[in-house]
Amino acid sequence: MFLRHVTKDISAYCHGELSSEESKQFAEHLIACAKCRTKFEEVKLGIKLAEQLPRLSAPDHLWSELEPLLAKQTTSVARPSAPWMWQTKVAVAAVLLVASVGVFWIYKSSRVPQNPKPSWFVKRLDGAPRIGSENIVNNGRLAIGEWLETDGSSRAQIDVATIGNVDIEENSRVRLLQSRADEHRLELVRGKMSARIWAPPRLFFVDTPSAVAADYGCAYTLEVKDDGGSLLHVTSGWVAMESKDLESLVPAGASCETRPSVGPGTAYFDDALPSFREALEKVDFERDAAVRSTALTTVLDHARPRDTLTLWHLFRRSEGADRERLYDKLTSFVSPPPGVTREGMLRFDEKMMSQWVELLEPMWTGNGGGKMVPKKVADAYFKVRNGLSRRLKDMAPK
Amino acid sequence: MAEQLIDGRVIEACQQGDRDAFQLLFETYKDKVFSIAVYSSDGDRALADDITQQIFLKLFTAIRQFRGDSEFTTWLYRLVVNACLDERRRRRRLLPWGESVAVKKTSERKPQEKQYARLEVAEAVQAAIGELKPKFRLPILLKYIEGLSYDEIASVMGCSKGTVASRLNRGHSQLAKRLSHLNNPEVWGD
């Protein structure tokens, strides 16, 4: 099933022209096939560009120029029956009014929507969830900009276009922000959701008050607490938690906390030692530098080979002596490949970083705690991640 | 919304030569027809005016041949697509060998930094659309300007749904390659 490339179906997939089963097979193939993924990115850009095509307004003089030409052709044609005339005139007046408003609207906006406002199918699971102020009896539709809310005894399931579904748990509040071929986006401001997505990387996003969860074809739970912080737990695939300045890539079996005004903390495996996790929380969110430094010592002392996931993320965020300590600990688990030098790594040489992470990655995806993730997928994630880092770097004020 | 006003009675009245009914039809579809004409004539609005007029003139008489075997819009867009292709063939015959239709490129008209505004993206896309072969351009126009489904596009173009999917795919790829410099978060405000 996975041998057949899917490049010819990319546009149809993005436009929702494939059946649910075909979409699922398409996405499964895409996650595992780098060739199709590259083509997918290209076609996705083409779609994004084509969506910018504005509908143009015909000039007002067209009808006045057309009328005399029509008159020449009218003579041989019979006149219509009388009852039709008043209906026509009312309709013409209505259309002319609509057209005038339309011209003004086009003037105000550079784009004209070609399709009706998208909405997602919502199924009631328990109790009486609400869309806006309306209770969902059995099913409903969530349009862009609308809120779906559950109370202490209600739950609902949302179909994310054709790419997956999301269960909204009790006491949650979620809004649909975007549903386009190249981006589907929810906002979770309170409560908990469980997502199962079979889409290619970076099609489905969830905004929270303290970070954005970017899906990489996976299953995960995301909980937003009252203080705006959130907790992500990934059960399959990978998810990136992103803020303006920070990013954590979280594989299956791992979690990541986020805090308002800080953003995402460091990803950690759920089976890490409690002492490791407690110390990591201080490293991520404690303001006192001395406390953070002591906590980093605990993290280094209690790290297992698999915790190189955490150490690697910390390494990328570290400076000075801490960067050296982290590098030394990482090398105690995995020796750098030929050509990768300490000096190069400490100055974040991008090529060396990529070479080394290829050695580290199997430790994060290959054993215990979570479902095995194909290396190809992880490669793609790091490629995307490195690209993102480059873009952020390029955009930084000089 | 306006298209809902075009029902069997309006079309029947048009077939009988009713000018008011035809004006209703004109007002309903003029922007869509004009848009396709502009994009098919490489942004030449004067030429698009002529093409649009010719299409509606032809429609005024040809509508008597509409039997209701397909949706009216499908039938209309078939007329529009054929008119645009005919006009293109006519222009190509008038051009000397090796001379292609001039397409305005935003990079030649605007300073580099201005390309990174949304309107500039739209202009760049319009120019790039003009460079596509008609068989790739027309499905894109029918999809994004008219909002047709793949089945509807197939019916207008007289080809299979698979061919539509394939041509859209290639059209999207060519757009992406021609405008790869716009694949930049700053352009889209991401």
What is the name of the CATH class of the domain at 1-53 and 88-115 in chain A?
Mainly Alpha
Helix content of chain B: 55-70%
The CATH architecture term of the domain at 1-53 and 88-115 in chain A is: Orthogonal Bundle
Number of domains of chain B: 2
H/E topology pattern of chain B:
HHHHHHHHHH
Q: How far apart lie the N and C ends of chain B?
A: 32 Å
Q: Give the overall shape of chain B, derived from the CA principal axes.
A: globular
- What is the assigned CATH homologous superfamily of the largest domain in chain B? RNA polymerase sigma factor, region 2, helix turn helix motif
Largest sheet of chain A: 18 strands, mixed
Q: Which structural category do the helix and sheet elements of chain B fall into?
A: mainly alpha
**Assembly state (oligomeric):** heterodimer
Helix segment count of chain A? 12
Radius of gyration computed on alpha carbons of chain B: 18 Å
Structure in words:
The complex is a heterodimer of chains A (398) and B (190). Chain A has 398 residues and is of the alpha+beta class. Chain A has helices at 10-14, 20-32, 34-50, 61-74, 82-108, 274-285, 289-302, 308-317, 320-333, 342-346, 350-365, 375-395; strands spanning 119-126, 130-131, 134-135, 139-143, 147-149, 155-160, 164-168, 173-180, 183-197, 204-207, 212-215, 219-224, 230-236, 238-242, 247-251, 254-259, 263-264, 268-269. Chain A has an 18-stranded mixed beta sheet that branches. By secondary structure, chain B is mainly alpha-helical. Chain B folds into two domains: 1-101, RNA polymerase sigma factor, region 2, helix turn helix motif (Rna Polymerase Sigma Factor, Chain: A), CATH 1.10.1740.10; 103-190, Arc Repressor Mutant, subunit A (Orthogonal Bundle). Helix content of chain B is 68%, strand content 0%. Chain B is built from ten helices and no strands. Chain B has helices at residues 8-15, 19-40, 45-62, 72-94, 106-109, 118-131, 134-144, 150-157, 161-178, 185-188. The longest helix of chain B is centred in the middle third of the chain and has 23 residues, at 72-94. Residues 95-112 of chain B have low confidence and may be disordered.
